[in-house]
Design goal:
Strand order of the largest sheet of chain B: 1-4-5-2
Strand content of chain A: 25-35%
Shape of chain B: elongated
Radius of gyration of chain A: 19 Å
Radius of gyration of chain B: 17 Å
Helix content of chain A: 40-55%
Oligomer: heterodimer
Low-confidence stretches of chain B: none
Distance between the termini of chain A: 65 Å
CATH superfamily of chain B: Hypothetical protein apc22750. Chain B
CATH architecture of chain A: 2-Layer Sandwich
Structural class of chain A: alpha+beta
Largest interface: A-B, 51 and 39 residues
Strand content of chain B: 35-45%
Number of strands of chain B: 5
Number of domains of chain B: 1
Helix content of chain B: 25-40%
Number of helices of chain B: 2
Order of helices and strands of chain A: HEEHHEE
CATH architecture of chain B: 2-Layer Sandwich
Largest sheet of chain B: 4 strands, mixed
CATH superfamily of chain A: Hypothetical protein apc22750. Chain B
Low-confidence stretches of chain A: 127-131
Chain lengths: 147, 107
């Protein structure tokens, strides 16, 4: 009985705080994306040949985001029937956008600039037995070339 | 030392290729922080300790790569790639590699 109660409390906490955290995060992401819209990013491997030497530098951004208990529970249920795991899609979307924003912030020293050859590296940090944590790590990196 | 993940440096010429250089590091945070992360796993949100951990690891991997490049008398590392992998719970490996080159003098 107590077990069920504990799980219910954890689910409630996860739902409440998790939803709040996600909403806040999306709010901050959208605001900063507008602020940093002037830094354009490209996955092109070669920048256009410049007429004069440009300053360039490696820039990186990274973030580790954890899923909340409620979302992990939902994903577990989804695993029974199969299909889109929307609770994890949001997590990955936030992590990618956040790491790109941090990369752009890192490039501020070179502003105005463009970032070329942007790569995104995603990995889950923990995988393992029953009590393992679920989190996602995203590293974004590229080369900022001054305009 | 100029670091870039492009294969060319805009406006500069590669004088000499010096081969692959690499740096790697494996790091872990102490148990207390793992516990905090466990609690955070209920509420969701960013795991700042782990972000810091990865940032430190990345900087160290880059430093080791740069040390190798300096030993080769290079003045730039091109085409840098990162790769991460988890080795055990709470420990992460970060690996950075690239091509050491000598560029012509900057004008």
């Amino acid at each position: 009985m107590t077990d069920v109660l504990v799980v219910c409390v954890l689910l409630g906490l996860g739902f409440g705080f998790g939803t709040l955290a996600e909403r806040r995060h999306y709010h901050s992401i959208r605001r900063r994306e507008e602020d940093l819209a002037s830094v354009m990013i490209f996955s092109a491997r070669f920048p256009p040949e410049p007429e004069r030497p440009r300053e360039s530098r490696l820039v990186t951004g990274q973030v580790v985001i954890s899923v909340d208990y409620f979302k992990a529970f939902l994903a577990g249920l989804r695993g029974l029937v199969g299909g889109r795991v929307t609770s994890y899609e949001g997590l990955l979307d936030r992590a990618r956008r956040e790491s790109i924003l941090r990369m752009k912030e890192d490039a501020r020293g070179l502003a105005p600039c463009k970032i070329f050859n942007v790569k995104l590296e995603t990995s889950s940090i923990w995988k393992g037995g029953g009590n393992s944590l679920a989190g996602v790590e995203v590293l974004a990196y590229g080369t900022a070339v001054a305009d | 030392m100029l670091l870039t993940n492009l294969e060319v440096v805009p406006g500069r010429r590669v004088v000499e290729h010096l081969g692959l250089v690499q740096g790697s590091t494996v790091r872990a945070k102490h148990v207390g922080k793992d516990l905090v992360a466990g609690i955070k796993n209920v509420f969701g949100g960013e795991l700042k300790f782990y972000t810091e951990l990865l940032q430190e690891s990345r900087e160290e991997a880059i430093q080791r790569m740069v040390a190798q490049a300096e030993a080769l008398n290079a003045n730039a590392v091109l085409n840098i790639r990162f790769s991460t992998s988890s080795i055990a719970q709470g420990a992460a490996e970060l690996f950075a590699y690239g091509t050491a080159v000598r560029l012509d003098e900057s004008p």
